[in-house]
């Protein structure tokens, strides 16, 4: 392989998501060539621990054999068929049943498949609106979501996204989408008391619902722990209060579990972390360990019953992709779910994640520009600040985050920089020794850049 040619071809032919095409012509992204377990190698043969997990996705590491074998076997048996009205296939049936059984504390009744997280969100938003129309309450079309939230790249998801950078180029977006403050302990104008913060931010939801008119609000959508926004963990009372408020006004609660689902938070689903039930769950990434694109929208009994009982003929759901429930993706997911149970993936994420969080939180005391270290399970964000007392996040003009990432890369750890945050989301099969390696590398990288 001619590496220089690869780099030149990348610059010339490949548009990278979320990146300035012109800038990418001049920069050389890391070209990843191989993966095994929690480790990856770049095209120059440099070995690194994958602190990114592909992109919060490769929860079983890069070489899980049962998932690989399931994909190959499905390829031989039936590489593709659709699940539109007239046909279905064995793996889709098996996977939907398996997920519903797995999500029984949640009272999930049915699952709609798609190709990824953005699709899963779009499906949930559409089902929410259709649900209210079927119930004769067509005025309930509005969505409320959180600032800093991330819900993918389709027009519905972008409209509920809480990050201006992801929205601006595509405005005007969906009408009827409103954003409220996220309960963010490190950056909020309200209080340093986390429980009070949970109450205040829940009150903001209630006030927004009342202000909009409760009979106009379809759903509230949020991540149980915000991922892309900088790993923001809400106070423990927030989600239970949100559930109460949604129930009080009949508003549907959609949990976007694209990152938190399947063990990353230390629980199988992030809503379990808060002891709360949603009405719909958006799932992707870890569902197939990222090996094959797959999204799913899990729908609870309350909603499914309304669709099932419809006699007007308007309950058909116009949210089908050619590749919905793709057999190879479904086979990969079935094997992934087996592995999640066999390897106790949520348990491992909780155990080694606690160790990771404890070790890296010390950076706040030892590094002059680390303002906050936060997370749960195996999702962790390190926020870099230009002024610790004022909690001023580093701006894009600072080269410090990139220098930390580069130092880590050289020392054998791949991390992700998002704004002022260094984000860690390693495979959930990671061992305590590998976590120690990550922490050693990061302590060294932050010390080197100080
Ligand atoms: N929702 C959340 C919470 C996400 O973090 C993401 C992606 O990171 C998405 C939705 C979109 O998923 P995808 O990139 O698979 O479309």
From TrEMBL:
<comment type="similarity">
    <text>Belongs to the class-III pyridoxal-phosphate-dependent aminotransferase family.</text>
</comment>
<keyword id="KW-0808">Transferase</keyword>
<dbReference type="InterPro" id="IPR015421">
    <property type="entry name" value="PyrdxlP-dep_Trfase_major"/>
</dbReference>
<dbReference type="Pfam" id="PF00202">
    <property type="entry name" value="Aminotran_3"/>
</dbReference>
<keyword id="KW-0663">Pyridoxal phosphate</keyword>
<dbReference type="InterPro" id="IPR015424">
    <property type="entry name" value="PyrdxlP-dep_Trfase"/>
</dbReference>
<keyword id="KW-0032">Aminotransferase</keyword>
<protein>
    <submittedName>
        <fullName>Aminotransferase class III-fold pyridoxal phosphate-dependent enzyme</fullName>
    </submittedName>
</protein>
<dbReference type="InterPro" id="IPR015422">
    <property type="entry name" value="PyrdxlP-dep_Trfase_small"/>
</dbReference>
<dbReference type="GO" id="GO:0008483">
    <property type="term" value="F:transaminase activity"/>
</dbReference>
<dbReference type="InterPro" id="IPR005814">
    <property type="entry name" value="Aminotrans_3"/>
</dbReference>
